[in-house]
Amino acid sequence: MLFNSFEFIFVFLPVTLLVFWRIGGIGHHRAAIAWLVGASLFFYAWWSPAYLGLILASMLFNYAVGVALGSRPHKGLLVFGVTANLALLGYYKYANFFASTVSDLGGLNWHLEHIVLPLAISFFTFQQIAYLVDAWKGEAREYSFLHYCLFVVFFPQLIAGPIVHHREMLPQFAQPNVYRMNHGFLALGLSIFTIGLFKKVVLADNLAPYASEAFAAVARGTPLTFFEAWRGTLAYSFQLYFDFSGYSDMAIGLAAMFGIRLPLNFASPYKATSIIEFWKRWHMTLSRFLRDYLYFPLGGNRKGPVRRYLNLLLTMVLGGLWHGAAWTFVAWGTLHGIFLIINHAWRALRKRLGWSGDSALGDWTARVLTFLCVALAWVFFRAADFDSAMRMMQGLFGLNGFVWPGSGAEFGIVGLWLFDMGIQFADTDYFKGGRDVLIMGLLLTFVWRAPNTQEFMADHLAPGTDKTPPTIRWRPTRAWAMLLSGAALFSVLRLSQVSEFLYFQF
């Protein structure tokens, strides 16, 4: 079931909330949790009932291992539990990829029947691995299987995160006010959900055709010119940005309706002035997981700079592979690993030479460079295969020429100068000239300058951490209610064009 669907917004969500409050309001907290677990499993099964047994079996196994680790933290048991989780994930997500790779390298005719990837398997597997490690460390302990189920399947964060620690969520359900309707929580949650819905339905989904037609063209072997390639790449960069930002807002908003605070997962990553900062802002809970459960166990930065850089590269390569079973995702992760190595090496050099001064020009130069690196890497993230990615890269670097649509008459005498500079004037299929430049420029300005959701909601989501003027912060006022009601109505009227969230495929 999609957050951006009629059945979710007008049936599932209100029924789930009302019954939860009704049961919990008369003191039956355990029954209310059971209802919420059942509703979350129904939400999951709506997509594919066949895999309901898989997630139930996964929870039973990890709960049993976690309880055992809580009473006797044996490292061998931890290794067994983590290995079993990775084996399950490996079979469903990577078996076909492994078979095709071995077949191609060895010239074999070896293949497996196509294995359908269960929804959210990457997220609920990583979340449970984190639980097992925390249980082994004595930082998490769960005595109730019902509560453990809620930790895993709580529907706002089940499908695409955030990846939540046991200690971050379960203690909140021990608070009595969670089980009664709270108009403040409801208003806050609906407001955040509406902002996310608007980002997804109005912004991300309207950018999707621009990106899809460009990447479909290179997949067919069509060479794109410089402007066509950049229009498609930027469209995908912004589509993914608003799609994931919208999902993150909707997840946090849904949890807030229940009085539950989920960890932030998205913080204006295109404002980053370095790749290091980008990964502190993009998919923040995944970055945290990779840091705590992969990079640190590998040795982190404790064994010298060379080992540190190797650990960074390996972490990002595996992070890329987590996103998808394809060599394009490995390339994307490798690129980010190389970017991070260069970034850390540059910081070390600046520190050694005493270059500590910053300036507005320097910050903006770094921001533009970081954005360009991220956008170029997204090509491998989106492309159907390596050949498609390389054809897109050829266009981005101008190897297929620079073509502006039309005759160039609108430029007047400047058009002659542009022609001398190598720009041709002719009809183009995937670039519409000034209109597209204006759209991409406005979107870039928005992601660089506009406050993000947590800044609008600073007094409720991240008190004391923002710099936005109090006059534009959200308040439960009539003006904000009217503004967000209009945004909600406009978004709902566009739900006939329902589309999945991009991160659902991971």
Task: Please explain how this structure is put together.
The two termini are 16 Å apart. The longest helix has 37 residues, at 183-219. The chain has 506 residues and is mainly α. α10 (226-257) packs parallel to α18 (434-449). α17 links the parallel β1 and β2 (423-425). It has a domain at 6-181. The mean pLDDT is 89. The protein has a two-stranded parallel sheet. 67% of the residues lie in helices and 1% in strands. The protein contains 21 helices and two strands. The chain is globular and about 80 Å long.
Short summary:
This protein is an all-alpha fold and 506 residues long.
How much beta, percentage-wise? under 5%
Report the radius of gyration as a whole number of Å. 24 Å
Q: Quickly count the helices.
A: 21
Major pleated sheet: 2 strands, parallel
Mean pLDDT: 89
Bin the helical content: 55-70%
Query: Ranges with pLDDT <50 over ≥5 residues?
Result: none
Shape: globular
List the helices and strands and how they pair.
Layout: H1 6-25, H2 29-45, H3 52-71, H4 75-106, H5 121-137, H6 145-153, H7 155-158, H8 166-169, H9 183-219, H10 226-257, H11 275-281, H12 284-295, H13 305-323, H14 327-353, H15 360-382, H16 386-396, E1 402-404, H17 413-420, E2 423-425, H18 434-449, H19 453-456, H20 458-461, H21 478-492
Parallel strand pairs: 1-2
Helix pairs in contact: 1-2, 2-6, 3-4, 3-5, 4-5, 9-10, 9-21, 10-15, 10-16, 10-18, 12-13, 13-14, 14-15, 15-16
